[in-house]
Amino acid sequence: MNDILTSRERFGLLVIDEKPDRCNIMPLITSHAATVKGMKVRDYYTNGENMARAQIAAIDKYEHDAISIFSEVGIIAEAMGSEFEYPENDLPIQRTPALEKKDIEEIKIPSPTCDARLPVYLEAIEYAYDALGDRVPILTYIPAPFTTAMMLSDPNKFLIQTIKESSRVESIVDRSLAAAIELCYHVIDAGGLPIIVDPLASSSVVSPKTYRQYALPSERKLVDFLHRYDLDVILHICGDTSPILDVLPQTHADLISIDRVNMQQAIDKLSSAVRIIGNYDTSRLAFSTPDDIKAEVRNMVEGALHAKQGYIAATGCEVPIKAPEENVMAFVDSVKEVGWYWV
Amino acid sequence: MNLIGYACSYIPVEILSATGLNPYRLLHGDIDLSKKGERFVRVDACPMVKSNLAYVIENQEKFAALIGSTGCDMSRRMFDILSEHTKIPVYVVNVPRTDNPAIYNDEIDWFVKQLEHFTHRKFFDETVKNEISKWEAMRTKLRCTDKKRADHPSLISTADFHKLMTSYHKGALTDEIIQNQDPTDKPRVYLLGSAITYEANHILQLIEEKLRIVGDFNCGLSRPLGISIQEQSIDGIKKAYYDQPPCVYKRPHQRYYDFIRGETIRLGCVGIIAWTLDYCDVHEFELQKIENVFNLPVLRIRSDFSFQGLSQLKTRIEAFAEMLCTRI
Amino acid sequence: MYQDLTPEKIGLKEWSKQFRMVGDSEIKEFKYYNNDEWGIYLSPPATFMVYGTRQLKKLKFDNSLAALRLWGFTFNESERLFRARQSGKRIIAAMGDLGTVPVIAMAFPDCIPFYPDCTWWTPFFNESTVLLDKASELGTPEASCFVRSTLAAFHKMAYFPKPDIMFASTGASCDDYSCIMQMAEEMGYELNWLEIPFRRQHRSFHMSEEHAVTDSGFKYPKRFETYLVNEYKRVWRKMEALTGTGDLKKLNASIEKNNRVRRLVNDIKDLTQTADVAPFPALEMMVIEFGNLYGYADIDEWLDILKMIKDTVADRVEKGIGILPSDAVPLAWVTPTADPLLLNIVEDLGGRVVATEYVINQALTIIEEDIEPFQALARSFMNASLIGSTEERVRQIAGSVDSGKIAGVIITNMLGCSHCAMETRLIEEKLKNVPVLAIDVPAPLGITEQLKTRITAFIEMLR
Asked: B39, B63, B77: best mutation site toward chain C, by most C Cβ within 10 Å?
C-alpha cells in the first residue's frame, strides 16, 4: 500500500488518539545519518547545517517518519563545563567532567544560543524545519536531568553519591533540570519537538530505587514543563527498564520508548496509559541480514500494532553509526508491509 | 436592435422568440475579443465570458435585452458587468443546480411575465404554439443532420454541423441543409467539455483532419437537440427544457455521466476529446473523472482561443488518432 | 494572575517568553467541551508551530491573553473535531453556504458543525504544498482556487474526522466550491445538496413582484425565502433522522446563541474600527469574523473567548492605546486573503484595516428572533455576499468611502477563483472615489519583496 499521510499528519493523528493510515516508523536514526550522507561523524555533530542535511538525506533514503536531531547525551553537560574530545569518525568522548574542576554552585545554566554545541542543535532544527517541517516532525533529543547530572560528574563518584550524598545529587540534578528547560525553550521556538532521553537512568545502570529517587522526579518535572506547552512528550530510556516499567507512567510522559524490554510485558503494563515506542534490537541492525531483520520486525510490529494507546515502530536504541543501510531499509520496509491501520 | 442575447441552454428560445426579437446565444470565443474583455475582468476569467463581454459591449446597439442564468458563476456575473457597462435591460433567471423543478418553473413564469412586460405583448397560447412549432421543426431538421453525423460511416463532419448549429444559436432559422456529404472511416470520437464558440470552427476542422466527431455534449453544438417539447404550451417548454440531458454543473451530476456513457456506446466512439477553456472550472474539474469513468482514451485540449499552440495541437491530434487506429 | 502588557504585536519568540508568565491555573482554566483531560488549549504559538504550522514563525500576534486564547482555540480546532467524535458527538459538515446550516445543526444535541472549506487557509498557515499537491493528484486543476486543498483533506482524513452528515450548498455560489464538493461526493462522502438562489437585484425595467428587504438593504423576490425555507426544513429533517430528536424550541435557542456571537463580533468590530488607535490587529479580527460561521466547533467556549476579547478591546479603547501608530492609514479590505501574512504586512507597512467585506455578510447579520425560525434563517441568508451583485457586495464599503472613513481599499484575489476573476475590476470601478490596490495572493511562500513594495507604495501614496 502507498502512504496516504505525511509523517507529520501521521504523528499528529497518533497523539490525538486516532489511528493513522499506518503506524509511525521512527527508528532512532541519529548519528547514523552521517553515514548515509557520507559525512565524517565529527562534521555531523559540530555543524548544525551538516546535521540537518544528514538527517534529511536519511529521510530521503529510508522514508521513515521523523527527523532526529541528536548526537550524544553529553551535550548539555558540555555546555555546563564538561570537556569532550571530538574524534573524527566517532561520537564525542568525555575527557573531564565539569564537577572535577568546579563545584555545582559555580556551574552556570548554559545559553543554548552560544554555549558549546547547543547552537549546533538549534541550527540543525531551524534548517530541518525550514526544509521539511511541514511534512516531518523534527524530534530533538534532550538529555534528561539525571543523565546530564552524571555527565557532569565522574560516573563512579556520582553513583556513590546517589547512595551517600543525596542532597548533592539532587542539587546537580536540579541544575541539570534548569539547563534542560532552558534548552527546551529554544528548541521549541526553533520548531523541534523535545524528546527526553535518559539512558543513564536505565536499570542497566542504576537501581530502580535510584531511578525513583532522582531520575523519575526530574523527568516528571521536565515532562510537566513541556505539558505547559501542550506538547506530547516522548521519554526514551535505553537498556533494560523492566524493573521500572510500572512506574514509568508516573513520569507523565505521553509516549514511552523502550529498549531491552519484553514488548508484550511492556504492552501489558503500559499500553493502557501511554503510547509505546520500540524496540527492535539495534545490534541486529548492525550484524544481521535484511531477511532476518524483516522477519523479526514483522513479528514485533504484529505484536504491538494494536497497543491500546498506540504504537510507534522503532529501534530500542540508536541505529549504529555503521549499520548497513540495507538493514535499516529492511526495518522500514518491513513495518510498511505489516503496519497498516487503514485497509 | 433586434437581438435578445442569452447565455444558457436552459433559457427557452421559444420564449425569447415570442418577443419578436431574434434570440442570439452569446457564444463568442475569439482571442481579440477575449483580450478586449480583459478591460472589464481579470485575465483569469473564462475566455468565452471575456469574448462575450467585449462582443456585447462593442455591439450593444444590436441588443434589445440580455438574458442570463445562474448556470456557471462567471457567466452569471458577466451580466452584472453588462448591466454596468451598457444600458441593455438584463434579466437573470435562476436555473437550479440541484434537482428542483419548482424553482425553475417559477422562474420561467417570472421570465415570461417580464418579457411580456418588456415587449408590451402578451404571449398568447397561439404565439407560444407557433414558436414551439417553428423551433421544433428546426431542431427536427438538425436532428436529421446529426443522425448523418452519427451514421456508420459518419456522413457529415462536426465542423459542417457546427455551421448549422451556429445558425440555430444566432436565431437565423434557415432551410439550409448540408449537401456535400463527407463519409469517412476516421476514428469515431465524442466531443465534450466547454462551449464550442462561433469562432472555433477551425479547431473542429483541425480535429477532423484525423478524426471524426460523431457526437458531442457541448454548448454551441448539439445540446439543444436534446430538447423535445411534447406539450405545446409554456408548461411543455418548462418540462422539456428542465428534462434535457443535464448540464455538468448539476449537482449531483451522475446523470450527466450516465447520458454521455450511453451516447459513447450508442455512437460506437473509440475516444473522447475533452475541450476546455482556460479557467473554465466546471469542466476542468471533470477531466480526471472523464479519463477514469468512460474507459476510453481521452485527448485533452485546453484553449484560450489563441493560435499559438495549433501546430503542437495538430501533432497531438495526429498521435491520438494513430493510437486510436492501433486500438480499433 | 497574568496581567496584559502594553499592547503591541509580537512574534512567536516574544510570545514564548511572555508565556512563561502565564500560570498553570490559567492554562487549566480554559478548555473546550469543558474537558479537563484533553480540552486544554491555551498554548503559545510555538506549540502549534512545532506541530507544523510553520507560518507562525513569521506572523505577529496581539500580545493579550485574550488573543493567546483566540489563537490556541482556533489552532486547536482539528484536534477538537476528532475529540468531539471520540466523545460521542456528531460531526456535521456544512459547505458553501458560510453561516446558516450550522445554526440548524447546533439545535441538535451534541452536534458539532464545521466548515471543511476553511481548509483553504491550511496551506498558508503550514507554508506547505502538501494539500495542494494532493489536490492536483486527485484531479483538481492547478489554476483553481486554493479551496481545492479541502479535497485533499477529505482524502487524507487527518484534518477533520469523517462527518456524520454533510450539507453542500450550490447554485449562486463559487464554481470551485461546487466542483470540490462534487469531487468529495465521488470519494464516497454522502452529500445533501442545497440550492442557493441568486439574489436577483430589482431593476427599474423589471415588472414588479413581491419583494422583501434584508438587514443590509438588499431587495429580493419574496418567494426566494420560500425556496430557502424548504431547503432548511430539509436540513432539519435530515438532522432529525440522524439524531432521532428534533425540537424547534432548540432552533430558537440556537438562533439566540448565534446572535449573541454575532452581536459580540459586531461590537468588537465597531470598537476596533472606530477607535482613534487600532486596539486589535487585522489578522485576529479576520479570525474573529470567521468565527461567526460556526464558533470554531465549540460555540460556548467561543462565546466566552469573544467576551474576553471584547473586554480587552474596550479597555484599550478607553485608555486610548493600541497596537498600531495613530497615523496608520485607514483601509478597507475586500475578499479575505488566503495568506494571513498579508494582513500583517499591510499593518507593518503603515495600513490599518477599518472596514472589511470578507464574503460572509450573511454570517454577520443578526437573525430575526421574532418570526418563524426557518424564515428567519432564510431572511438572514439573503444578506449573503456572493449571491447578489457586486454593487451590493461593496455598497457598505462604498458608503464608508464616501463618508471619508477610508483612504484606500485593498482587494485580495485568488487565482482561479471565479468571483475574484469577475468582480475585481467592477469593484475598482464601484469604488472609484478612492485608490484601490488589487493583490493576487500568491501560492504558499510566494509573497515577494516586489509585492511588499507595491503595498508600501500604495500606503505611501495614500499618506
From this structure: B77
Task: List all residues 6 or more positions away from B105 whose beta carbon is below 8 Å from its beta carbon.
Answer: B238, B242
Which DSSP string do the residues of A144-211 spell out, in sequence order? -HHHHHHHTS-HHHHHHHHHH-HHHHHHHHHHHHHHHHHHHHHHHHHT-EEEEE-GGGSTTTS-HHHI
Number of domains in chain C: 1
Residues making up chain C, counted from first to last: 463
Cβ–Cβ gap B281/C179 under 8 Å: yes
Q: In the CATH scheme, what architecture does the domain A7-338 have?
A: Alpha-Beta Barrel (3.20)
Give the chain A residue nearest C47 (alpha carbons).
A229
CATH of domain B3-125: 3.40.50.11890
Residue C158 belongs to a domain with what CATH number? 3.40.50.11890
Beta-carbon contacts of residue C240 (< 8 Å; ≥ 6 apart): C108, C246
**Is residue C414 within 8 Å of residue C123, measured between CB atoms?**
no
Residue C167 belongs to domain spanning = 91-249
Is C172 within 8 Å of B76 (Cβ atoms)? yes
Query: What is the per-residue pLDDT across C279-293, written as a single tens digit (0 to 9) for each?
Result: 999 999 999 999 999
Which value, to the nearest 10 degrees, does the dihedral of the CA atoms of residues C121, C125, C131, C135 take?
30
Q: How far apart are CA A29 and CA C304, in angstroms?
A: 45
The residue of chain C with its CA nearest to that of B71 is C171
Residue C95 in any domain: the answer is yes
Q: B221-262 pLDDT, tens per residue?
A: 999 999 999 999 999 999 999 999 999 999 999 999 999 999
**Per-residue pLDDT tens for A247-304?**
999 999 999 999 999 999 999 999 999 999 999 999 999 999 999 999 999 999 999 9
Partner residue opposite C170 with nearest CB, options B44, B97, B103: B97
User: What local confidence, expressed as pLDDT, does residue B139 receive?
Assistant: 96
∠ CA A114-A118-A119, nearest 5°, is: 55
**Residue B30: how many other CB atoms lie within 10 Å:** 21
Provide the 10 A C-beta neighbour count for residue B259. 16
CATH of domain B138-327: 3.40.50.11900
Q: How far is CA A236 from the centre of its chain?
A: 5
Residues pairing with C181 in the sheet: none
d(Cα A195, Cα A257) in Å, to the nearest integer? 10
C420: chain B residues, CB-CB within 8 Å: 42, 44
* ipTM of the predicted assembly exceeds 0.85: yes
What is the reported pTM? 0.96
Cell of A151: 555527565
CA B327 to chain CA centroid, nearest Å: 31
Please give the pLDDT value at position C432. 87
DSSP A209-254: HHIIIIIHHHHHHHHHHHHHTTPPPEEE--S--GGGGGGGGGG--S
Q: Tens digits of per-residue pLDDT, A27-67?
A: 999 999 999 999 999 999 999 999 999 999 999 999 999 99
Q: Which of A4, A132, A134, A231 to substitute to test the interface with C, most C CBs within 10 Å?
A: A134
Whether the CA torsion B198, B200, B206, B210 is positive or negative: it is negative
**CATH 3.40.50.11900 region(s) of chain B?**
138-327
pLDDT of B328 > 80? The answer is no
> Which of B162, B236, B238, B169 has the alpha carbon at shortest distance from B22?
B169
Which chain A residues contact residue C14 at CB under 8 A? none
- Residue at C283 is within a domain: no
- Residue B10 CA to residue B224 CA, distance in Å, equals 9
Distance, CA of C386 to CA of C392 (rounded, Å): 9
Dist. CA A188–CA C129, nearest whole Å: 23
The answer to whether residue C22 sits within a structural domain is no
Give the C-alpha separation, C280 to A115, whole Å. 39
Measure CA of the first residue to CA of the last residue in chain A; give whole Å: 9
